[in-house]
Amino acid sequence: MANTETALKEAMAMIEGAVGVALVDYTSGMALGTIGGGKHLDLNVAAAGNTDVVRAKLRAMEMLGLQDEIEDILITLGGQYHLIRLLKARGGNGLFLYLALDNKRANLAMARHQLRKIEAELEV
Amino acid sequence: MLLRLASERATGALLRDRGTLYLVEGQVVHAESPVAPGIDVMLSATGRLRPDGWTQAIREAGADGAVGRYLVDSGLVSGGELEICHLGALFDAAFFALAPSSGPTRFRYGAAHWIGPVRPVAAEAVERETLRRRALLDRLWAHPETDTAPVVPSPRSARPRTAAPRQRAVLDLADGVRTPADIARALGRPAFHTLIDVRRLAAAGLVETPRPAAAAAPTPPSDVARLMAMSADPDVALLRRLRDALEATL
User: Out of the domains of life, which is the source (chain B) (predicted)?
Assistant: First the structure.
């Protein structure tokens, strides 16, 4: 039964290579909580910007007539991985977890797995 | 005003004509607005909290001002969920409470809200987010009339609807009677989110505000009416040219 701050802290501590993590509302683009980041990565800006990514994908699926849900979205940069995980629980409708990873230190499969666990804890 | 209260670490309620902000030691702890659905609506809409659970919490802990803590301690909702819903409701109500208005602004020192401490937010963050939200709305569709007027699905949109599922829920409730605030309440979503969806739908040409002209077709002044009665055969060609010219300039 984690509150948002502990869940985010846990993500930063547990996930190897985590640079920053945010809990974002994708309709308004507001970050409900952020941790990490820094002068190279403003998480509030990243939160607002990435809502467009999520919305674009949802719209594309709608046009294709895909009756499915997005579990997560992976964006691979030169030096970073950005992982977007949509919260599925009833209370988390319209939220996503946004995780930025340093790709030299990160283990992608492990990070996905841990992010899934953090999502589950947030919604217990 | 809000930032000044924050700098003097004030505790109390900031009352404005479109909502109230509650402060504890200069931090915003809660906000309410008649336009925005309350935290109770949002918690019940997701199905996590039954209405009797909510009334029970108010009865047990309302007098002590610790409803939030009671909800978590009694296992009715989890800490994360309460925080998420509370923050959503807080920023939503604050957006309307802090909207520019000519109405009076008062501060009642010492007033506290019965929800009790959940997660305080810095006044600067609330102020900044409110401004960001206003800019976001204007960027989507710079016609604020869709925020308060009831909207209807546009009859001209014959093309297939490509609204996302969340927007379609809004579209389904747009019946020309409900305002965006009513739609938000019916769906149990924040009012600002509904404004966003409505403006996006309006920008995509899927909804519009009903034409007020039909309701209030004014009767022409008597001399004009007399002229209209005299010329039974209006100059159709002239009217067409006039219409085309108007359309070209608009």
Answer: Bacteria
Query: In which domain, by residue range, is A67 found?
Result: 4-107+114-122
ipTM score: 0.83
Q: Tell me the chain B residues in contact with residue A93 when contact means C-beta distances shorter than 8 Å.
A: 46
To the nearest whole Å, the CA of A124 is away from the closest chain B CA by 6
CB contact under 8 A, A4 and B77: no
In a 13 Å sphere around the CA of B163, the CA atoms on its Cβ side amount to: 24
- pLDDT single digits (tens) B196-249: 999 998 888 888 887 654 444 556 666 766 666 666 566 777 788 888 888 887
List pLDDT tens digits, range A14-37: 999 999 999 999 889 999 999 998
Domains in chain B with CATH codes: 2-129 (no CATH), 145-212 (1.10.10)
The CATH number of the domain holding residue A99 is 3.30.450.30
Q: How much is the pTM? A: 0.82
Domain count, chain A: 1
